[in-house]
Design brief:
399 residues, alpha/beta, 9-stranded mixed sheet, 5-stranded mixed sheet, 25% strand, globular
């Protein structure tokens, strides 16, 4: 399904999915049902959930489909934090057809009063007869919706398309369970692992298709982290610029121990989530004040052994600011520091079919002394993007 342009308000008119005549059927007390219906409708709900990409944090992306007599009668998704949840939108789209319907929801309906009322009450009030969800809610404040619905006589089933739902909301799930944002390391390099020549030239190692794919990752992240060297050398804006639609502005984070970067750098633009400067006590007070006058959120963190801002503290600050997923984009020293600290959860490596020779490595830092200690990826996937290759996967922590 094509992704809509960011910021576009899409129609919530229900889609009509006809059951395939060749699908195996099983008899139940009320007649026949298609054995793959649960998966088909839940996958549709997951497609709807994706429409909230980059806009729902610190909430999860959630989609909902209401099905009655084998036909979708209502659809909804959570489009932005603070706005109605997916179930409420689907019920509104279905109107009176919600009564007696089955609700397919990508996350267990919430049972608490937050910025919006409980979705369990909305489902009960609408007369929904059955609820199928993908993932149980790990948030102790919101969990318990399934039991609440069962207590009111509804048939409730879970764990349908759970793996797909967990991947979609991996940032949010990790932030709840680990207490820090999910960290994605992204870099574009040559076949011999270089991100720039010995003179510092780096534009462009990869082609347009790879760069467009990288912007998709930026759009999904709540924050993008770079070092002072990258800002001084390239003056990047760190926005997410899709081919079609509006530019999105995640929180731009600059690691700058002594405040070397210019307060007027493009990265410090106030649009969207704004910018954060992470410094240490080595930064002069007058310099920090200059950033703040420019509208930059400047924080002073503890220094690590190399005199750089402590990364654990940084992630804690980002969690406080509602960040669930962050992208570390460079340079090589910053990437190396995150890998050395074992704080990377996922890797996106864009590889161009070129050989640079002497130049800057993609990842610096201390590294490991033995191959046996190297970080290994699992759930590895590769994509061909023009002449380039994207290799991405999660860090295998043996869990």
């Amino acid at each position: 399904m094509e992704r809509p342009a960011p910021g576009t308000r899409l129609s919530r008119a229900p889609a009509r999915l006809a059951c395939r005549s060749d699908t195996p059927r099983i008899r139940s007390g009320s007649g026949f049902f298609m054995v793959d219906d649960d998966r088909r409708y839940m996958m549709r709900a997951l497609d709807l959930a994706k429409r909230g990409l980059g806009a729902t944090s610190p909430n999860p992306m959630v989609g909902c489909v209401l099905v009655r007599n084998g036909e979708i009668v209502g659809e909804g998704w959570h489009s932005r934090a603070g706005e109605p949840h997916a179930e409420v939108e689907a019920i509104a789209a279905a109107g009176p057809n919600a009564k007696g319907a089955t609700a397919y929801v990508t996350l267990e309906p919430c049972a608490h009063h937050g910025r919006t009322p409980p979705c369990t009450e909305a489902l009960l009030n609408a007369g929904v007869a059955e609820v199928v969800y993908a993932l149980p809610d790990p948030n102790p404040k919101a969990a318990g919706g399934a039991e609440r619905l069962r207590a009111k006589g509804l048939n409730v089933r879970g764990e349908v398309c759970a793996k797909e739902a967990a991947y979609l909301n991996r940032f949010w799930l990790h932030a709840i369970r680990a207490g820090r944002p999910y960290v994605v390391a992204k870099f574009a390099m040559s076949l011999d692992g270089r991100i720039a020549t010995k003179t510092g030239d780096s534009k462009w190692i990869t082609g347009p298709a790879a760069r467009a794919r990288a912007h998709e990752l930026r759009r999904s992240a709540d924050a993008i982290i770079v070092g002072a060297g990258t800002v001084i050398a390239d003056d990047p804006s760190l926005t997410a610029r899709p081919e079609i639609g509006e530019t999105s502005y995640p929180l731009r984070v600059v690691l700058d121990s002594a405040g070397r970067t210019s307060p007027g750098a493009a990265v410090f633009d106030r649009t969207g989530r704004g910018a954060l400067l992470a410094a240490t006590s080595a930064a002069p007070h007058a310099r920090l004040d200059a950033y703040r006058r420019h509208g930059v959120d400047a924080v002073v963190l503890s220094a690590d052994a190399q005199g750089r801002p402590d990364l654990q503290e940084l992630l804690g600050e980002l969690k406080i600011r509602g960040c669930c997923g962050v992208m570390v984009e460079g340079g090589s020293q910053v990437l190396g520091a995150f890998f050395d600290a074992r704080l990377v959860d996922e890797v996106w490596a864009f590889i161009a079919p070129i050989v640079i020779g002497a130049g800057k490595p993609a990842i610096a830092g201390e590294g490991v002394a033995r191959i046996a200690d190297a970080l290994r990826l699992c759930d590895l996937e590769t994509e061909t993007l023009g002449a380039d290759i994207l290799a991405r996967g999660r860090i295998n922590r043996g869990l």
